[in-house]
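Hey everyone, long-time lurker, first post.

I ran two proteins through the pipeline my lab uses and got sequence/structure pairs for each. Pasting them in order. The first:
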Amino acid sequence: MLTKDNELKELLTKTKTIAVVGASPKPWRDSGAIAEYLLKQGYMVYPVNPNYPEILRMKCYPDLKSIPVKIDLVDIFRNPDDVEPVIEEAIAVKAKAVWMQLGVINQPAAAKAEKAGLGVVMNRCIAVEHRALMR
């Protein structure tokens, strides 16, 4: 589990592509606002949600396997009970890390990701951490 500031900063520095799983076009949902924030910080962002064809004027993908580029980081905005299939897909597409947003806590899924060699961040907001560490 990546918890130290230097580990998080290294992850955020090395990351170029981010898949936002559970991205939403609804303005009151954090997933869309954070995807937009990450875009503005220079990351290549790929929204993932089978319910929408487009989010933030970008093509939205139904799943990680549909994204045509290598994903460095999978940012997860899902109910904790729905995380394990996302982790399995992140492992299958050879993502380097998974980031479970605030309130998304699933220890067995985190352990599965770590066992497969992925970096894991859990129960933290990527935008908050980015603002704090990447000044």
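...and the second, right after it:
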Amino acid sequence: MPTIRPSADLRNKYGEISEFCHQNIEPVFITKNGTGDLAVMSIETYELLNGRQQLYSLLEEGLDQVKSGKTRPSKEVMESIKEKMGF
């Protein structure tokens, strides 16, 4: 169940909202005049979500490359990585 708070709470109960965001890996939805306006979350949650989005983008890019036939054998890839790392 999402946590929904009025915009006045952002000003009047910032500490409470901040503590909730740091204890829970979920945003607090802020309303303005009864309508959704903002999502507030901890930096840690933001970085987690952003990291997931970047991972999904890379996975999608990889799947697109597979579909278009742009692949190499895993042995060849590992040898290339070892060369670049100086092994």
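Reply from user beta_strand_b:
Welcome! Quick read of the second one: DSSP finds four helices and three strands in the chain. The CA atoms of residues 27 and 87 lie 44 Å apart.
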